[in-house]
Amino acid sequence: MSTIHKIGLIGAGNISQAYLKLAPLFPGTKIVAVADIAPEAAKKRADEFGVRALTVDELLKDEEIDTVINLTIPSAHYEISHAILSAGKHAYSEKPFALSVEDGKKLVAEADARGLKLGSAPDTFLGGGGQTARKLLDEGAIGRIVSGTMHVMSHGMEHWHPNPGFFFQPGGGPILDLGPYYIAAMVNLIGPVTHVAAFASKGFEERLVTAEGPLKGKTVPVGTPTTINAVLEFKTGAQVTLAASWDVWKHGHVNPIELYGTEGSMLVPDPNFFGGTVQYSERSGDYIPVDTSTAPFGKGNWGADQGHANYRMLGVADMLDAAEQGREARCSGRVALHALDVMVSILDAAVSRNVVTLSTTVERPAPLTAADAERLTAAR
């Protein structure tokens, strides 16, 4: 990027820390202000990182800011993203992109009409793990993908998040909260989905909060499915199963994503993270491990032991670079809309007990090359 883009955040919750800490990795981005519906939360976060605390209205009207990152709760994503675009600013949203496909389509249309860029998390598939797997697949390492499995299982969020209620309401649940990572990874690796079938249920009607905080010992109601089993059919003909649950105490699914091809199999790292080890086999041979820590955005840089690769803000940087180059962003609104369509269709299929045909499609995002990575991280 040739320009330093001035960025504002709307939403000062837990996730805002990662964006603020990691923005300096991308010299073309500079977060200058934080806003929140709770002014005290905005001030606390702004003071922590030495940026301005503004009201939402002030931030949207600020002429210095050309891009806004939407970190509000899922139910507010559409309204806030639409307000950002209406203010003439590029918009990047945390996942999920919106809660309905109709709202997602409106956002894409609004951005196009205004000549603005629209993007959405997750950007983890741009990391060393996702891009190494993509390169191997594109090179034919395991042939044509025939089928695969995805597993995302735990016992929910109430044991670590101090205010987990929204996770268990529409817009949350394992499909809309964690599903975006898995669906975006699959779109990157295989391409668009055409049809889905699914079953869903709630394991519990309420959840006991055990995380430290004011809600510890209290219960929160469950208003969305927490166990979902789905089958996704891709345009390529591949069939991939997805098992997503917050009702599981323990399981043995070590590999979150497995892909089975005509010439071998591949184990893909956890799409919730940027790094990890990719493994693939030549037909029925032993798995060949490929360390991605030396790949762009694969090196560990996060956590107490610096063992996790975390490059949140990569999607924002790529979106703004796309704006300068006149190309499609890799974490574009269109990719996010298609992922949303997949997830909503899964929930619809579970209710109707019918196979659902998706109303959207999308091209696979372009691979992120070493040259692209160098441009995004080049000093200004």
UniProtKB/TrEMBL annotation:
UniProt keyword list: Oxidoreductase
Domain Gfo/Idh/MocA-like oxidoreductase N-terminal: 6-118
GFO/IDH/MocA-like oxidoreductase domain residues: 131-266
Coiled-coil stretches: none
UniProt keyword Oxidoreductase present: yes
This protein's record includes keyword Oxidoreductase: yes
Record PANTHER family: BCDNA.GH03377 (PTHR43818)
Protein name, entry field: Dehydrogenase
